[in-house]
């Protein structure tokens, strides 16, 4: 699965008073048809995409599907398979933030409503980067609740993962063969000195918490004490341990140069740059969870030479091929995202309006060098990899062959010219 994505991040900053909306910053709301044209031009048939949660989920049981209908129906018509991203770093104002204990149940009802409305969708990322969302919102104090406590972090984490698990359960009621591709940050913490070994080991255990809970894997004794000391109850822990959804999942992991950290004796961390790289860190995650792998996010800025991002694409792709060559089932690769991003350099916590040249296209929808390189990479490798695969194929049902309740309507949506405006209904 060669993929890209259109980011729908919506965290709040300034104590919840300011919404940071990446779809708005990239002008996707106005230019979504052009963006889908770009996806097709690249030869990409898988797209990480989802409607903005804060504009769609209006209240318990109340939804505004207009933008979702326009975009999802157009993806169906184009036969582009969405990997639907339902929650990306934020919630609607009426839900507050990730400290809200009602969030898991309410979000699961939204996921179920989405799956009922779009029964042809098979691939989902219910909640994007649960670990990063909890860290940035409740440990670093950057987003949403803007807390800087371990208790805040554990509370956000348990709510995010529980919401993810419950959403998977609800989606499966409407699509029994749904596949869930976690998009989770892959991290590593390097000890700066012997005195930093202890803090680094603790952080290297903590990086697995979201996926351990999501997949029902027992955490180690230190992390168990950490969770209980910071507000998780034994019953909450048992819920994760006994709710096994792993058999429906692909381990999607993200890797950027900022994912490796240097740890000091007092626990402070700083960016370490690329030390181990994607292949080695992904081996650690695969050894822990034994699931098929998909590289779900990476990028690099286009620098002065114009080739920096191209070289990073080549390096990440070489890492993906290495995983496959050593027998780790690896089923997809993603350059994220389709267009440049705004204020990624400050992790969306400050609105400077800085355009970060990390996309396959710039914000004028002009293809970048890395876009041309990715297009060629897909053309070169698309037909080679299935023949040399060392694992079973992912059981995907192409959108063009989905079994809809109303097959005639599905065929009409695939073939007719998309509406310019309005709110087309989906069976």
UniProtKB/TrEMBL annotation:
Residues 409-419 have a biased composition (Basic and acidic residues). InterPro entries: GH, Glyco_hydro_1, Glycosyl_Hydrolase_39. Pfam families: Glyco_hydro_1 (PF00232). Residues 405-427 are annotated as: Disordered. This is Family 1 glycosylhydrolase. It comes from Sphingomonas alba.
